[in-house]
Design brief:
Number of helices: 12
Radius of gyration: 27 Å
CATH architecture: 3-Layer(aba) Sandwich
Number of domains: 1
Distance between the termini: 69 Å
CATH class: Alpha Beta
Number of strands: 8
Helix content: 25-40%
Order of helices and strands: HEHEHHHEHEHEHHEHEEHH
Amino acid sequence: MPCLLILLFVLLTACGGGSPSRPTAPVPSPSPTPLPRQVVIVSVDGLRPDALLKSETANIQALAARGAYTWEARTIMPSNTLPSHVSMLTAYPPEVHRILWDEYLPARGRLTVPTLFTAVRAAGMRSVMFVGKNKFDYFKDTGAVDLYQLGTGDDDVAALAAAEAQSGFNLMFVHLPEVDISGHAKSWMSPGYLDRVAHADQAVGRLLAALPWWTTVILTADHGGGSRANNHGSAAACDMTIPWVVSGPGTLRGYRLSTAVHTTDTAATAAYVLGVELPAGVTGEPVTEAFAPGRGRSLARE
């Protein structure tokens, strides 16, 4: 009997007896981790593009070398801080948003049009603002900004922003005030003004160093200055011409834009990268020329 059992075992083994083996399922390749949607808009108040060539601005120049840029973008008329920033952050012209004055005067009127922050909130995303002038309280009053802080100068604003850099925001707006303040005090393109431009560049560098590598950065200004020695606000080219730089994972590198860029395009481009929708009727358009073919929109959808 034991011999028969042994013989049966040998026959089963030779014929492939026992539990049949199952075919091995292919192991799926891991999908690439989507890049977080994150945009930082830096506005250097009162920065003329030609000042970048006459000051020590290695950080801003390096940002342009890593992305797409123009030194001939245009702001709105009146080329003043508050109405210009409202257009920059809503994609609406002044005749639509109706903020034509340059101070925080809520009794005169509120910001009633939707903003870029409104679109970010509607998409379930988080936005933060760090500013150097209280006139930006108009944006705080809308209730669409998750964190709003007023700093005392370029260094303080940049430090507040850098401290928030790893917090998981989707949209950050940073306003550096001192270049404009120096222009009013010492005149545009004076040695004192150019010194403040270099100082702002250092603040920009500290902020950039704190940001995750996947952040898309748009650096621009609300206006230039110098049509009148210590002022701005006119339609003169020195008041209306502003820098505009965008750099991030989907942008071309060291690419000088041929597109005519307007300050209203800043909000539209940020919305494009974030994959959020601005209202119908805005005049700003995303600067898609800045992005490698097929990259900008695909990044927005990740």
